[in-house]
Every structure is written in C-alpha cells, then in structure tokens.
C-alpha cells in the first residue's frame, strides 16, 4: 500500500504570537503534553509496524511542533524506517536544527513559514542558510499580506536562489493587477492559490491515497471534511481507503487542492508535493 498521511495530533500551542492565529502563544499543561506524546508514540508504533507499505508523512500541527524534542525524535525514528518515503512538517523554523543530523536526511523536508511580525528577516534567513548547509530540503512561505509586499521582495532577493518561496493568498484582500503581477513574478504558482476551486462532485485523491489522521487515529479524507472515514488503528482500516468524490462546495487550500487530479499539480510538484517544492525550478 502506498499512502500519504497528514498527521495532526492534539498538540495546539505555539511559541509565536501571530495575531490572526488561535494557537498564538498558547501554552499547554503537562497533562496535555503527555496526551500529545502518547498519541504521537502510538502513531510512530503503527508506522513502524507497516513494513510492507510505502508511507509519506506530513505533520500539520495546530501550532508549532518542532520546538518539542518528541517531534524531532519522531523525524529521526520515521526517516530511518525503510517503509517511510518522506517525513515533512509545517514549521515556523524557530527550533534549533542540530537534531536533523540524526535523521536520514534525504527523506526529510520542511515546509517553513516566515512570519515577519514574529521574527526578523535576518534571523529567519540564518535558519534557512543552516538548512542549506545541513543539506535539508525545504520550502519557504509567506502570507501575501499587502503590508508585507516589500518584505516579501526582500526575502526573495536574500534567500538562496534554489529555495522555492511560495506565497499564500490572503483571500480577504482583493489583489490589484500590480500586486498580482509582483507576487506572481516571485511565486509563479501564486495565482493558483488565489482561487476557490469548485470541488463538489469532483474527483480527489483525498480519502484514497492521502488521508488526514488525528491523535486518536480517526481518519478523514482531508482536513476540510470533518466526517470520519475510519480509524487507522482498526485492523480493517485499508477498506476505508476508496475512490471518493468531494462533498465540499470548493477547495481553496494548497494541502487540499493539490490532490485534485483535474489540476495536474502532482505533475508540477512530483515527489515534493507534501513539502510544497515544485519538481522543476520554475521561479
Ligand atoms: S507561527 Fe503559525 S501556529 Fe504559531 S502563532 Fe503564527 S500562525 Fe499560529
Ligand atoms: S477537493 Fe479539497 S475539500 Fe474536497 S476532498 Fe479533496 S482535499 Fe478535501
């Protein structure tokens, strides 16, 4: 079986304080951390037991997970497993990075996001340079807020040329033609992220070859359709993985619409689909 799993455990805290985010500066109790650790360990044990499969794992936490040693250790453990083809995570890149040396580095990748209100460009770029030096694959992203336009341009100029900078559309903002042009020059795929794709009744790989899993093992086709389709820890979970059509009206988030076959984005991203790195340097 070949499966991509978007894992989102109970963790819901962050060391940053982005003002639009519910996890900003949220701290968890000791018991909540224990709960997250137990859920993570159960997931790791499950992956470890799936020696006949090919599994890609993408951690999409509520908050920041890589500042926690248990997630760093999870990368080390998962990347060493022959059945694991990729381990990726969404991160604000604030954690230390020496732990990556314990990983099978060719299998790990980071989806990093720069938050200009929470860290300086210099500090973020220093982390990016460290990832380059440590030979870890990563993408860098920003939200295309109009007030960050100059910062985004400066970031692109200073990032190593081979690093892809993606820009997420701030969908409440109607971009001017000039802004569209400017952002599309930096990220040629930016226009794709400005749309809401009609998806009701359309084919999607979510629920078949890619699933969302929470800390209890509850499987959903994606993060955007809340109806469970099964539980990863049930013996017959594979029976839940079938071809499905989307039941939402639209799909507008990259981690969702990349799995719609009609958009052919698997051809654009290839093996970098989880960490959002296009197969060819198109920027
Ligand atoms: S870094 Fe991410 S998780 Fe943390 S507060 Fe900002 S948006 Fe939220
Ligand atoms: S199109 Fe989007 S919302 Fe619909 S199933 Fe796929 S990922 Fe989920």
Automatic annotation (TrEMBL):
One of its GO terms (molecular function) is catalytic activity. Keywords: Iron, Iron-sulfur, Metal-binding, S-adenosyl-L-methionine. Coiled coil: none annotated. It comes from the Bacteria. SUPFAM superfamilies: Radical SAM enzymes. Gene3D superfamilies: Aldolase class I. NCBIfam families: rSAM_STM4011. This is Radical SAM protein. It comes from Reticulibacter mediterranei.
């Amino acid at each position: 079986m070949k499966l991509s799993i978007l894992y989102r455990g109970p963790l819901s805290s962050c060391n940053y304080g982005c003002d639009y985010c519910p996890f900003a500066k949220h701290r968890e109790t000791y018991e909540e951390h224990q709960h997250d650790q137990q859920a993570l360990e159960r997931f790791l044990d499950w992956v470890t037991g799936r020696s006949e499969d090919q599994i890609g794992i993408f951690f999409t936490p509520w908050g920041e997970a890589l500042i926690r040693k248990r997630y760093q250790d999870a990368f080390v453990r998962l990347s060493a497993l022959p059945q694991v083809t990729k381990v990726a995570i969404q991160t604000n890149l604030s954690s230390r990075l020496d732990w990556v040396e314990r990983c099978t580095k060719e299998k790990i990748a980071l989806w990093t996001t720069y938050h200009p209100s929470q860290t300086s460009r210099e500090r973020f770029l220093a982390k990016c340079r460290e990832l380059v030096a440590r030979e870890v694959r990563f993408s860098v992203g920003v939200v295309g807020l109009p007030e960050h336009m100059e910062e985004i341009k400066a970031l692109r100029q200073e990032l190593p040329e081979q690093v892809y900078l993606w820009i997420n559309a701030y969908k409440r903002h109607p971009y001017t033609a000039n802004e569209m042009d400017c952002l599309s020059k930096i990220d040629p795929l930016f226009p794709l992220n400005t749309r809401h794709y009609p998806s009701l009744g359309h084919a999607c790989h979510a629920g078949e070859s890619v699933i969302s899993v929470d800390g209890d093992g509850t499987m959903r086709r994606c993060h955007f359709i809340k109806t469970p389709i099964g539980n990863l820890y049930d013996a017959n979970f594979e029976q839940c993985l079938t071809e499905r059509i989307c039941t939402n009206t639209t799909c507008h988030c990259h981690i969702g619409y990349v799995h719609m076959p009609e958009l052919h984005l698997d051809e654009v991203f290839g093996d970098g689909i989880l960490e959002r790195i296009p197969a060819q340097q198109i920027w």
